[in-house]
Fold:
Amino acid sequence: MEQRLERRPFGRTDMTVSVLGFGGAEIGMEAMDVGQGEAAKLVNEALDLGMNVLDTAPSYDTSEELIGRAVSHRRQEYYLFGKCGEGRSVGLEYPDWDARNVRPSVERSLKRLRTDYLDLLLIHSC
Structure:
């Protein structure tokens, strides 16, 4: 498939990323009422158009699950940017920003996203 979006080096990493990425916050929010079919269509279309960055977080309600079900079979086609930091606000044992939340947060995200790695992990909303 013809690459439709410009790509650039991402800092000092070995990643070359599309100038636009897919932000997963909105698809997961309850108020948006996006179902699996619509989410799959959106995320797959983004990849088909040449986006290769998908960004999501545990606090985006169902975003991780929707993305995982939609495109985990295409995992080699995109970089997955995830977040950590939230704790009790997303159902983990320790308060937000407690370092003990990092491992359980990442493990839960990997399961929801149906992958065994994230390409970038960011601290979220501190």
Notes: The first strand starts at residue 7 and ends at 9. The longest helix spans residues 36-48. The chain has a mean pLDDT of 92. The radius of gyration is 15 Å.
